[in-house]
Amino acid sequence: MSTDISQLPEKPISLNYSLERRKTRILIFWLLVFMDSVAFPIGLYYLLTRCTTLSTTTIFNILTMTLFGTFLTETLQRSWSLWRKKSTVRVRNTGRYYFDFTHWHILVSWIIIIAELVLGTIPEPPWIRMLAMPVPSLFFVFSIEMLIFEFMYIFKIPVPFRISSVPKGDPMRPALYPLLEDIIAVDGMGQTEFRDHLNQRYNASPPFRSMLHRLTMLWMIPQMLVAGGTLAGIVIADHELAYTLGWSVPAIWAGIWAMVMAIRIRVELRRERHYW
């Protein structure tokens, strides 16, 4: 069956979303994440070990209680945004208490974080290598998931369950697709309309589909290497260096690579415009 060229759009379907008006909010959020997940764990550790006579157990109990405040606040805010009766960010045609795919990611992250922090603080003295692992282990687990999803996308394997706006049985989409959809719709306040526009753009634009695949690979492979390398460093380095590596390397890489991704996205969108 041939396609009627006259029915194709003359330019990419607009997502009706811009980051320009949200730059300050995004900057503040990531600054809080950096303070909460990098500066506090490392800075407070060295401050307490060098300037106090507190036991190692007490120090790590204090550290554990101060971690991930921004992450917790974001989790609660997302839950409310998705669950409230007149939610404007929920996946279309789903029930009130449906979690989007990214929210399941967050819940799994909490399980991994809590398990490692509990296992690390139970021994006397605390198991410092385990306490250094939450961030790199999350990176590694989710890079493996992205690899599986990308394999499914390449070989056109249908999704076994609903993934945000992608219904069960539909062909798998690039692994970045549901993350992009959920984060912008809920956290970026693009709302349910953004989910619809993203789906329309994906279906209508072959370069857009290819772009998401290339961007997924550009993020996934380095993430897996950084996570694996950091975990290896935690195992072989001395305790203090292992702790510093675990809480610094993944975050520093993510910050740098996010800027690389932003540049690459501009290049890819320019390529898409040339196609049209």
UniProtKB/TrEMBL annotation:
Organismal lineage: Eukaryota, Fungi, Dikarya, Ascomycota, Pezizomycotina
Keywords from the named record: Membrane, Transmembrane, Transmembrane helix
Entry annotated with the keyword Cytoplasm: no
TM stretches of this protein: 27-48, 54-76, 97-119, 131-155, 217-237, 243-263
Domain of life: Eukaryota
Keyword Membrane among record annotations: yes
Annotated protein name in UniProt: Uncharacterized protein
N-terminal signal peptide: none
